[in-house]
C-alpha cells in the first residue's frame, strides 16, 4: 500500500512541486485548491503507481476545511505527511492596507493550517507516526516594509509550528517549519526581476523530501532557504 501525503494548495508553485516530487516517489496525494480546472489538470499527473485525489475548497472558510478533512479521511485512514501550504500575499503596510486585510490573511495563512491539523492529527497520534510541514516564510523571522498582514500571519504560523513541535514530541510525530525566501511562483508574476534571483519551487520540494526521509530519531525543525544572492 502506498504512503499518503496531504498537500493544501497543490496546484501551483511550491505546492505543485511537492505534489510532483512525492508522486515520483510513489506516494498517493490528496490535495485541494479553489480552481476546479487547475485541479483537473493536476489530477492528470497520476500514474499507475501513484494517484492524485483532488478536492475543490477555499480553506479560508472553516466549513470547507472540515469538508476537505472529511474527504481525506474517506480516501485514506493513514495520513503519513501533512503539508500546510495554502496561503496568499497582499502587499501593504499596517497603517494603510485595505480594511479586512489582516482578517483575510490570517484566515487563509494561519486558520487553515490550524483547523486542518486539528482535524487530522488525532489519527497520527493514535498511530504514533506522521510528519507535519508548515510552509512559513522568511517573513516569519524578518519584518519588512510592505509586508503588513502577511508578516503577521507568517510569524503566527511559525509560532504554531513551534508549539506543535513541542506538543507532538511524545507521540513521535515530527514537525518541520519551512521558511523559503523569494520563490519563483505566481506571486511574483509580472515583476522585472531575473529568474536566477529566485529560489526554484522544486528546490523547496527537494528539501522537504530530504527532511522526510531522515531516520525517525532525527527531525529538522526549520528549513531556511534563501536565493543565493540574498533576499529580494
Descriptive key words:
globular, seven-stranded parallel β-sheet, Rossmann fold, NAD(P)-bd_dom_sf, 7 strands, 232 residues
Describe the structure.
This protein has a 7-stranded parallel β-sheet with strand order 3-2-1-4-5-6-7, with helices on both faces. It is globular. It has 232 residues and is an alpha/beta fold. It has helices at residues 13-24, 36-43, 62-75, 101-127, 148-168, 201-212; strands spanning 4-8, 28-33, 52-56, 81-84, 131-135, 174-180, 222-225. It has one domain: NAD(P)-binding Rossmann-like Domain (Rossmann fold, 3-Layer(aba) Sandwich). Helix 1 (13-24) crosses helix 6 and helix 3 packs parallel to helix 4.
Biggest pleated sheet: 7 strands, parallel
Q: Give the low-pLDDT segments.
A: none
Query: Portion of residues in helices?
Result: 40-55%
**H/E order of the elements?**
EHEHEHEHEHEHE
Output the radius of gyration: 17 Å
How does the overall form come out from the CA principal axes? globular
Question: What's the number of structural domains?
Answer: 1
What's the CATH topology name?
Answer: Rossmann fold
CATH homology superfamily name: NAD(P)-binding Rossmann-like Domain
> According to CATH, what is the class?
Alpha Beta
Q: What is the annotated CATH architecture?
A: 3-Layer(aba) Sandwich
Q: Can you give the mean pLDDT?
A: 96
- Distance from N terminus to C terminus (CA atoms, Å) equals 43 Å
The strand order across the widest sheet is 3-2-1-4-5-6-7
In total, how many beta strands? 7
In what range is the share of β-strand residues? 15-25%
SS field, number of helical segments: 6
Structural class: alpha/beta
Amino acid at each position: 500500500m502506498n504512503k499518503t501525503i496531504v498537500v493544501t494548495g497543490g496546484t501551483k508553485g511550491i505546492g505543485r512541486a511537492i505534489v510532483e516530487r512525492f508522486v515520483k516517489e510513489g506516494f498517493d496525494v490528496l490535495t485541494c485548491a479553489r480552481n476546479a480546472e487547475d485541479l483537473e489538470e493536476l489530477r492528470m499527473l497520476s500514474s499507475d503507481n501513484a494517484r492524485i485525489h483532488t478536492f475543490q475548497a477555499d480553506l479560508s472558510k472553516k466549513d470547507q476545511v472540515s469538508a476537505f478533512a472529511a474527504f481525506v479521511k474517506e480516501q485514506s485512514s493513514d495520513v503519513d505527511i501533512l503539508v500546510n501550504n495554502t496561503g496568499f500575499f497582499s502587499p501593504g503596510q499596517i497603517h494603510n492596507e485595505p480594511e479586512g486585510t489582516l482578517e483575510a490573511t490570517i484566515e487563509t495563512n494561519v486558520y487553515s493550517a490550524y483547523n486542518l491539523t486539528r482535524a487530522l492529527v488525532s489519527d497520527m497520534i493514535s498511530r504514533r507516526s506522521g510528519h507535519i510541514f508548515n510552509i512559513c516564510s522568511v517573513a516569519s523571522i524578518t519584518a519588512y516594509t510592505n509586508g503588513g498582514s502577511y508578516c503577521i500571519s507568517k510569524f503566527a504560523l511559525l509560532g504554531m509550528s513551534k508549539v506543535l513541535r513541542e506538543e507532538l514530541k511524545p507521540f513521535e510525530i515530527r514537525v518541520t517549519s519551512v521558511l523559503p525566501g523569494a520563490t519563483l511562483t505566481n506571486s511574483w508574476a509580472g515583476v522585472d526581476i531575473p529568474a536566477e534571483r529566485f529560489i526554484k519551487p522544486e528546490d523547496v520540494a527537494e528539501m522537504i523530501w530530504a527532511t522526510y526521509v531522515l531516520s525517525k530519531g532525527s527531525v529538522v525543525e526549520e528549513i531556511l532557504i534563501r536565493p543565493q544572492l540574498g533576499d529580494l
